[in-house]
From TrEMBL:
Alphabetical UniProt keywords: Antimicrobial, Bacteriolytic enzyme, Disulfide bond, Glycosidase, Hydrolase
Protein name per UniProt: lysozyme
EC code: 3.2.1.17
InterPro entries: Invert_lysozyme
Pfam families noted in UniProt: Destabilase
Enzyme's top EC category: hydrolase
Cysteines engaged in disulfide bonds, as pairs: C51-C57
Catalysis: reaction(s): Hydrolysis of (1->4)-beta-linkages between N-acetylmuramic acid and N-acetyl-D-glucosamine residues in a peptidoglycan and between N-acetyl-D-glucosamine residues in chitodextrins
GO terms classed as biological process: defense response to bacterium; killing of cells of another organism
The keyword Transmembrane belongs to this UniProt entry's keyword annotation: no
Protein origin, superkingdom: Eukaryota
Any GO molecular function: lysozyme activity
Keyword Disulfide bond: yes
């Protein structure tokens, strides 16, 4: 299972943030990624800000990051990772997936998924 196999509804209904717009000057693109996250994912597209305004590049960044950390040492098994594990890796990083903060974040996502 790939984490970015598609968004519900037509892609043209999704709006990409403007170039170089980052929430709190840190979290950029459609998935609120940081520059360090993008570096960890192998720097797809070669330029962070250009990547964050391109759906294909942002999706590749997300896929690369999940692929890098969906491993025995992080989640206790190899791929594939569950939706919950992917969410925890993306939102909390590979070393924060079992924290209380991450539990709270997962509960928000889980509630959204169940609607």
């Amino acid at each position: 299972m790939r984490n970015t196999d598609g968004h519900p509804g037509p892609a043209e209904e999704c709006e990409m943030r403007p170039y170089r717009y980052c929430f709190m000057s840190i979290y950029c693109g459609p998935y609120d990624m940081t520059h360090d996250y993008w570096l960890d994912a192998g720097s797809p597209g070669g330029d962070f800000y250009n990547c964050m305004v391109d759906w294909a590049c942002a999706n590749q960044t997300l896929d690369n990051y999940i692929d890098r950390y969906c491993i025995q040492e992080v989640v206790g098994h190899g791929p594939p990772c569950s939706c919950e594990e992917q969410t925890r890796i993306h939102h909390c990083g590979p070393y924060g997936i079992n924290t209380e903060h991450c539990d709270e974040a997962w509960q928000v996502y889980e509630k959204c998924l169940s609607n």
